[in-house]
Amino acid sequence: TAEPxxxxxxxxxxxxxxxxxxxxxxxxxxxxxxxxxxxxxLDMYANPVVSALKHSAMTG
Length: 60
Hints:
mainly alpha
């Protein structure tokens, strides 16, 4: 399903099954990536969430 652009996917907005599937997908992508690049990959995944949370906190 489509998400609104301002929605942050969290444990409060997603089912346990959705979160588990996302964790599994991320783990597979991390394992396929060279170990030295993994911190950068994780930052790329986290950046939209961090940005959305900062925006949400500022607009309250």
